[in-house]
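User: Fold this; tokens only.

Assistant: Input:
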Amino acid sequence: MVVALAAGLGLAACSSSATAPSTSSTTSTTAATSGGPPAAILDAAKSSLAQDSADIRMAVSATVGTRTLGITGTGTADLANNAMQMTMVLHGVPAMDGTSLSTVIVDGTTYVSYPQISAVLPGKSWISEPSTSSSTSGLQVSNVSDMLRVLAARGAVVTKVGGGTIGSTPVTEYKVTLTPSSIASQESTLGVPATDTAEVQQLLGTSGVTFQVYVTSAGQFRRLSLDLGVPASSSTPAVQESVVVDFTNYGTPVSVTAPPASEVATAQQLQQAAG
């Protein structure tokens, strides 16, 4: 999942939706190898990553059981070093509506900060966990750099949908379907860090995932959107998510650093202190 809130902290999931641009007719569907729409996606992924950084805006709408919740966030992505930082706001979450959260992903570790941490662990304002682990922190955020990297994979099925605009930027919309089998053998060549392979596998699931991708005339991604679902388990309800990520200001200087070690506790320490 791109964003998931753990019920154990009183959070279920998160969002706010974003409106896709209007588009014209569908034109073609082919496998991503060379020439035509597939080449446009491969080239856009490589061109976007080559800019090394970008400003990002994320909006997620989620249905958890019978409840609709959400999150909106803005931040920056260090595409060269597979790092990112975001400030997010919860919407519709009981007792936490309007709460601001911060997240940093750097060097294979995810750090999350929100006000309730210091109430449980005085002197601590962040919790951390390896990006390779299942989320126990109450918030899981996938690295947007990994989304761009998997879109550079060959073997995806690409459909050109048509033209439109996002804000004042002309874009061409494509539908890109990726399967686990199309990615598994390419993760190392795509530059997906070993710490993120589990996250990529979770994103793809068992049947794959379909992105709606919007490419500018400069050949870079302007927006990615996708729908995700997690079935119910014995302890959690089913979750359906709609995710939109916007990219702007490619190449803007960015520095993503971990929070001070003295302010960080592990997710396990937080759980133990909370009882």
